[in-house]
Design the sequence.
């Protein structure tokens, strides 16, 4: 292929570059601008301390061009000439299929840094500390949209999973460029970066099923009755619990400081490991899947057996990536969340946008301190059970009940979904059920499943503690 040779020849050494053009992208908090020069080429320039530039300003940038086929400048000097006549060039409107066709599998330096408008279905919402990531897709093509919404910010009411959205932003992607191994341009991540929240608009609302069904009303009544019964039992046993608690309090105070120091060290190590896995192994998996898909497209039409084998490898990589993503999710949530098991569950439920209005967290009994690795395993089990109820059972309400009993902890996930044949699922080796059973067995506990088609599902876990 001629591409690596051309790329190596183009970037054998960095060189001082001077370009003049119009700022097309600027967002507070990001260390770069995008601009379009007078010949129509898009450039990514690092943001200097001064002067500040805004969208529509005409600027001149002097700096060192990075060793990359992408047009990127490490800015040494920047001057603002004034406002460009007519303002910045308008964004180019494309479909997701057209966008992927033009940048896969080795990128497109003419499109990198350009302003584009596209549409797709909102498939996922991932809340971060300072940003919110939207996954927008059409058919097999999905792109990440990096929004400037912090975790405490409220999302637009219409922005829910299943809505069709129209997004305008700067196109960016990560690619591998290794001179020693002669590997250039392999795509790792594709994203649109809007300038503000106004650049994402809902053009068609998600279909919304009726909320109050007969089953849901009965579930609420039953839950209220259960809570009332728990309160009655709690009042009767309060005196015994207070006496026992007073004896345990002195030992607990001595142990708490030691536990806190160990927990802080463990939390830092988990976050470091999660970051290493996400930035390393997770990205290589994504790159491998992109290359595998590209290799499949290069096969001749009659290579069906080879295509089948590549599809199986792709599915295996996808399964591995999903498992790694689930583990990284639990490590981050466990490390960032509160110490209390119930509060941790509630914290996680609030961060899962597609659980809102569906998942209810209930706690019974006097909560006691639980080891962090124990919390992490229960968090993975709870996520898998709730995910199965929503994804496979189409549940409209899921109740997660944590009961702190004298000799054990009971975790019950009850949903009003379509239910299933438990015996048939266990015989076929359902991966989610086997994973939950393996995790609970590692904790020395037991799992019981009650379900039948059309009657919802109850999954009960009992763990000595």
Sequence:
């Amino acid at each position: 292929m001629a591409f690596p040779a051309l790329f190596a020849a183009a970037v054998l050494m960095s060189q001082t570059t001077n370009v003049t053009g119009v700022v097309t992208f600027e967002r507070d908090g990001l260390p770069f601008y995008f601009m379009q020069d007078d010949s129509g080429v898009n450039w990514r320039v690092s943001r200097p301390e001064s002067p500040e530039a805004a969208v529509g300003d005409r600027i001149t940038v002097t700096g060192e061009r990075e060793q990359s086929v992408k047009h990127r400048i490490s800015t040494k000097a920047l001057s603002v000439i004034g406002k460009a006549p007519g303002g910045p060039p308008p964004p180019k409107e494309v479909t997701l299929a057209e966008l992927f066709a033009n940048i896969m599998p080795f990128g497109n330096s003419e499109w990198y840094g350009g302003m584009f408008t596209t549409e797709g279905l909102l498939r996922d919402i991932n809340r971060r500390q300072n940003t919110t990531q939207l996954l927008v897709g059409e058919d097999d093509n999905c792109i990440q949209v990096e929004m400037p919404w912090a975790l405490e910010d409220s999302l637009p009411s219409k922005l829910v999973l299943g809505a069709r959205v129209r997004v305008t932003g700067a196109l960016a992607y990560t690619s591998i460029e290794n001179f020693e191994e002669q590997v250039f341009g392999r795509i790792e991540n594709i994203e649109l970066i809007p300038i503000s929240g106004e650049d994402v608009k809902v053009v068609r609302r998600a279909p919304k099923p009726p909320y109050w069904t007969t089953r849901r009303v009965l579930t609420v009544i039953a839950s209220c009755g259960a809570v009332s019964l728990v309160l009655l039992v709690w009042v009767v046993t309060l005196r015994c619990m207070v006496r026992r608690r007073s004896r345990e309090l002195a030992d607990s105070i001595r142990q708490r400081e030691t536990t806190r120091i160990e927990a802080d060290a463990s939390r830092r190590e988990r976050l470091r490991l999660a970051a290493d896995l996400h930035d390393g192994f997770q990205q290589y998996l994504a790159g491998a899947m992109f290359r595998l898909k590209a290799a499949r497209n290069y096969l001749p039409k009659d290579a069906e057996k080879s295509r089948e084998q590549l599809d199986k490898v792709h599915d295996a990589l996808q399964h591995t990536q999903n498992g790694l993503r689930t583990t990284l999710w639990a490590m981050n949530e466990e490390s960032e969340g509160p110490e209390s098991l119930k509060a941790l569950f509630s914290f996680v439920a609030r961060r899962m946008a597609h659980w809102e209005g569906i998942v209810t967290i209930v706690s019974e009994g006097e909560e006691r301190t639980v080891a962090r690795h124990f919390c992490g395993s229960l968090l993975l089990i709870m996520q898998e059970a709730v995910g199965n109820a929503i994804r496979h059972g189409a549940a409209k309400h899921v109740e997660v009940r944590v009961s702190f009993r004298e000799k054990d902890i009971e975790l019950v996930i009850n949903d009003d979904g379509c239910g299933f044949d438990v015996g048939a699922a266990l015989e076929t080796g359902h991966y989610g059920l086997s994973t939950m059973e393996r995790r609970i067995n590692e904790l020395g506990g037991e799992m019981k499943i009650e379900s039948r088609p059309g009657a919802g599902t109850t999954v009960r876990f009992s763990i000595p503690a």
The longest strand covers residues 164-178.
